[in-house]
Design brief:
591 residues; alpha/beta; ABC transporter transmembrane region fold; Rossmann fold; 2 domains; 6-stranded mixed sheet; 5-stranded mixed sheet; 18 helices; 60% helix; elongated; ATP-binding
Length: 591
């Protein structure tokens, strides 16, 4: 028999993200942005980008053609050239027909490309989240909120808004250049006098439209500054509210038993009030942007009229020239106004990237572990200098512990002492602490917790999980259902259900035994696997297990000491120390 101490230790550092420089964040953003173009799908990524930008260019080219059509059409009207009227109308339909075809193709390809990019990022993030049970560590240590939202929503929004911004930016620059040249051709010099010098700047229409756009964009950005932080806050409060709803669903029965619906409604109301409050502030910011945009829009409609009409009256510009210049002015200012229109999506983008960044940080930190788990080519499970650390400044020192093949260890101790955590440490799921856990690399080690995981699907699928149901005969499964007294469910083997909600906790624990007997593991770790069973059923569970798998190496956490006779050794965890002892079933040794 050996002893070790349960001691108080230093406070565990709080889970949280280290603060990093803007440079690191920018590097992360660029990596996220470019990873698809450097992936194995790079051909599609590059060709797709070229196609998208190409089609955007054609759309703009067609609108430049439409602008030039306006010029010639209104000149034809002004000069009363009746013979050219019909050809001009045909030209109109040709230009608009081609535009329509390109626009439709563009919409289709845009959607396809964005889904392919999203698929790439989603697959990558799901794989990283699941790797080495990272999803479990995140939940256990509450490292980050709502990883599901980060994978499902943030990545979708990221790909959508980056595409909108990049394609929109390309479009606005191309349109700016194309319509800028139209404006240049309708321009006169700007003349003014400074300190006795006559200054003349050519291209008045172009400069006025640029100045107008800069003023609009500057004003919108200034007015909409608070939008970024409010959008980020909105995403956070929306996620909290959604999580609250999910949490109620997850604990529906417990809440119903407690008749605690009014309390839950109250906390949901408070969470929703936070949404409402921030949404109000968000709307105010959007209102400011819309009002400013509207004022500039109205001015933008009149401005080209005032700029071109004097030239028409002076005879330096034809009527077609006036119409074309006005259209070009509007096209150019509206394409450049993309910057302010994209402002809101930009605000959302920053919030998304921040959330994905935080998720990445946690994923990268994932592997760190104080307790080392190594696989050895031996048949024993062994712990060396094992110490488990808990969040409440306590630790549990197990020390050295060896489980030889065929031995059956019972682990007992008061609630909260660390029995389940010790099992987690053996499975490599409890990283906090120190020491080494050595597990055999050969054969199957199976861990069975109190609550069995039953995926949604057929009963057979749930029993055989994680293996394929096709790997086992129906007859074999049905006969094992009878062994554990669940023959009444044999008819439902191929029924699809959420079995975790359909079976009682005790039935689920009996299903665990069916799963164990199907898999026939070499080593079995049971963590209160019979806690929901009455004593007769619990005794039957252990008796059946040992009858069918007599040489299994067993570690089981139990609360009821009537189950200790099924074991050969005992590990007792207590505040004053951990003890190990051999049990003699003949003499009914107390653990
Ligand atoms: N996911 C977790 N995150 C943080 N602390 C945890 C987590 N799970 C357990 N703990 C803490 O670790 C300590 C040991 O818990 P553990 O579940 O191992 O106790 P136990 O001996 O199995 O208790 P019981 O007999 O009640 O099941 C407890 O103080 C508990 O608060």
């Amino acid at each position: 028999m050996s002893t070790s101490n349960h001691t108080v230790k230093e406070a565990r550092p709080q889970a949280g993200l280290p603060s990093v420089s803007t440079e690191v964040r920018i590097r992360h953003f660029l990596k996220l942005l470019t990873s698809y173009w450097l992936s194995s799908d790079w051909m599609f990524a590059w060709f797709g980008t070229a196609f998208l930008l190409g089609s955007k260019y054609i759309v703009i080219y067609m609108s430049v053609q439409a602008n030039s059509w306006q010029h010639s059409f209104y000149d034809v009207v002004q000069n009363k050239q009746v013979d050219l009227f019909i050809p001009e109308i045909i030209k109109f339909f040709l230009i608009n027909g081609c535009s329509a075809v390109v626009l439709v193709l563009d919409v289709y390809f845009y959607g396809m490309f964005s889904m392919r990019w999203r698929t790439f990022l989603t697959t990558e993030y799901v794989a990283r989240w699941m790797k080495n049970n990272g999803f479990y560590s995140m939940e256990r240590a509450a490292l980050i909120d709502n990883p599901d939202q980060r994978i499902a929503e943030d990545i979708k929004d990221f790909t959508n808004s980056v595409m909108a911004i990049v394609v929109g930016l390309f479009g606005s620059i191309t349109a700016g250049i194309s319509f800028g040249s139209v404006l240049w051709s309708a321009a006169a010099p700007i003349r003014f006098l400074i300190a006795g010098y006559h200054i003349s700047i050519p291209g008045d229409m172009l400069w006025y439209s640029l100045l107008y756009t800069v003023l609009t964009t500057g004003a919108i950005i200034w007015v909409g500054r608070p939008l970024i932080s409010r959008t980020m806050r909105q995403q956070q409060v929306e996620a909290d509210f959604r999580f609250g709803l999910i949490y109620i669903r997850r604990n529906a029965e417990q809440i119903a038993f407690l008749d605690a619906a009014p309390t839950e409604v109250q906390s949901l109301r408070e969470a929703f009030d936070r949404i409402k409050k921030n949404y109000h502030r968000l709307i105010l910011a959007q209102m400011g942007i819309n009002a400013t945009g509207h004022i500039f829009d109205s001015v933008g409609k009149l401005l080209p009229v005032f700029l071109t009409i004097p030239k028409y009256f002076a005879g330096t510009l034809t009527f077609g020239g006036v119409m074309a210049a006005q259209d070009a002015f509007r096209q150019m200012t509206s394409s450049l106004s993309f910057f302010y229109q994209a402002f809101q999506s930009f605000a959302q983008q920053i919030a998304n990237v921040n959330r994905i960044w935080a998720f990445d940080q946690v994923l990268e930190r994932g592997g760190a572990s104080g307790i080392q788990v190594i696989k050895e080519d031996s048949r024993e499970i062994a712990a060396r200098d094992l110490r488990l650390d808990f969040y409440h400044n306590a630790s549990l020192t197990i020390g050295d512990w060896t489980i030889l093949p065929g031995q059956r260890w019972v682990v007992v101790g008061p609630s909260g002492i660390g029995k389940s955590s010790t099992m987690r440490a053996i499975a490599g799921l409890w990283p906090d602490g120190a020491g080494v856990v050595q597990v055999p690399s050969q054969g199957l080690t199976m861990f069975v917790p109190q609550r069995l995981y039953l995926p949604i699907g057929t009963l057979k699928n749930a029993i055989c999980f994680p293996g394929s149901p096709d790997a086992y005969d129906d007859d074999q499964v049905i006969s094992l259902l009878s062994v554990v007294g669940l023959q009444k469910h044999a008819q439902r083997l191929h029924e699809s259900r959420s079995w975790a909600d359909q079976l009682s906790p005790g039935e689920q624990q009996r299903l665990a035994l069916v799963r164990i007997l199907l898999y026939r593991p070499d080593r079995l770790v049971l963590d209160e696997a019979t806690s929901a069973l009455d004593m007769a059923n619990a005794l039957h569970f252990y008796a059946t297990l040992l009858e069918r798998l007599p040489s299994v190496t067993l570690i089981s956490v139990v609360h009821d000491e009537r189950l200790t006779p099924f074991h050969t050794h005992c590990l007792r965890l207590a505040a004053e120390g951990v003890t190990q002892s051999a049990l003699d079933p003949e003499e009914e040794t107390v653990c």
